[in-house]
């Protein structure tokens, strides 16, 4: 069985798509597994206006993998994962 090493984001209204490589086994195996298990996910992509050039999607289920490869530095082209429990923000 081939391991999935990327995910694709599709913005249907704009007719564009972008693929992203996953960190996988060495850097964040449980986070990647949790995200992949939650796919496919459909929702409204929103601009993270307060944090700069960022787009985010709220997943329909709360994912809570352990903290792996944590960073506050997100560069252009990076895909980050953040868990925020309802009522905590």
Rg calculated over all Cα atoms: 13 Å
Shape: globular
Q: SSE order in H/E notation? A: EEHHEE
Give the count of helical stretches.
2
Give the spatial strand order of the biggest sheet: 1-2
The averaged pLDDT comes out at 80
Query: What percent strand?
Result: 15-25%
Q: Would you report the number of β strands?
A: 4
- Weakly predicted, low-confidence segments: none
Distance from first to last alpha carbon? 40 Å
Let me know the largest β-sheet.
2 strands, antiparallel
Question: What structural class do helix, strand and pairing data support?
Answer: alpha+beta
Helicity range: 10-25%
How many independent structural domains? 1
Question: Which descriptors apply to this entry?
Answer:
two-stranded antiparallel ribbon, alpha+beta, 18% strand, two-stranded antiparallel sheet, 89 residues
Characterise the protein shown here.
It is globular, with a radius of gyration of 13 Å. It has 89 residues and is α+β, with helices and mostly antiparallel strands. Strands 1-2 form a two-stranded antiparallel ribbon. Strands 3-4 form a two-stranded antiparallel sheet. 16% of the residues lie in helices and 18% in strands. The chain has one domain. 3% of the residues are buried. It has two helices and four strands; from the N terminus they run E-E-H-H-E-E.
